[in-house]
Amino acid sequence: MKNTDIFESQSIPKAVASLAVPTILSMLVMVFYNMADTFFVGQTGDANQVAAVSLAMPVFLFIMAVGNIFGVGGSSYISRCLGEGKMEEVKKTSSFCFYGGIASAIAIMIAFFLFVDKVLISIGADENTFTFAKQYLLYIACGAVFNVIGGAFGNIIRAEGAAKVSMTGMMLGTIVNIVLDPIMILTLKMGVAGAAIATVIGNMCTVVYYLFYFRKGTTMLSISRKHFAVTKRIVKNVFAIGIPASLNNVLMSCSNIILNMLLVSYGNSPVAGMGVAMKANMLVIFVQMGLAMGIQPLVGYCYGSKNTKRLSGTMKFAAACNIVMGTVLTVIYYFAADGLVRMFIEDAEVIKYGSMMLRALMVSGPFIGILFVFSFSFQGMGQAFQALILSVSRQGLMFLPIAIIGNKMFGLQGVIYAQPIADIASLVVAIIMFVQILAKMRKNHEMEA
Length: 449
Fold this sequence. Notes:
Blueprint: H1 5-8, H2 12-42, H3 47-84, H4 87-122, H5 130-142, H6 144-159, H7 163-187, H8 191-216, H9 232-264, H10 268-304, H11 308-342, H12 348-361, H13 365-380, H14 384-410, H15 412-416, H16 418-448
């Protein structure tokens, strides 16, 4: 069976399952990796090391944002090109993303080594967390190329329908990471530095696996230098979607920095508590995000081939699935919050804050999946403006003012509930934009008929 058969001939539920299930599974493994990272650092019994990882996370997200420029932007354009039958453009785009990602990652690595101290001061590291956070970030910077390319090509390979290959590569890296975490952090007593080294080695394994996939020659993509081209069309289409997608990571990074700065005024325990709560909440977020991410190539292909009915049906089915999963997980998490936080660290104060914060984050649990469906569908359709607005809304225009105002008006409670309120507000914006896009598509289809 050709990869494109998923896009063209399979029923919507089967096509969504073929693309989304491998993506969800790979995201689940990533959840366990993120939980394992915090869990094993927490086993050191040092709340400052847990807080340091939380403080460093926004910078780690920035590196991932660069991978998203080429991964999300490239996969969106590639899936639309496949729908339009432009095979040579597919090869040129994937090669551009490969070499562009490498060059960008090297630039990031150099910048980190030059300005790491200033970065740490700006994100709120104090005398208790500065050294730990610096160790973590310097090792992460050394592996920036593997982080960027591994993340980017997980998306790009999925764009041609090879969801299982993408899943295997991501799972390989995260499993290696999980296995190495207790060895590096506890056995070798390297603490947060060990967590970072394990992450780099895991990303390296992912990239090596993807390189072997390209060597097999069964892909429609290319990383060959002979296909490398920097054309106005490729740059425009990749960056038009990639930048809004990466902006989401950048704004997530900025919002986390501001969140930590607001929380640190209440002490390091709330910072550590929110770090644990956000790690635990990743299961809810990543499962629903995985389904939405999985349908992106299908949405892009349908958009490129002008199949409005299949596009709309795919989004409705994915949204319904996410509502069910989100509701079930929210109920479980609400009642199991104390136990989930206690799994990460045995610190009474951190547990108190963490469980309270986790329950607050779950307020948007049943609805956040619909927002992800809209977000990844906008990216798949190449709707740059809508993708940009949605990225800016959730982590910028909505979250930041809500968090700052909430802190002034309601103190710690106002900070804790800022994210779920921003999620729900952004969902309303997404629904309005999608209704407008669908009406325009139907109008164009009627005019062409």
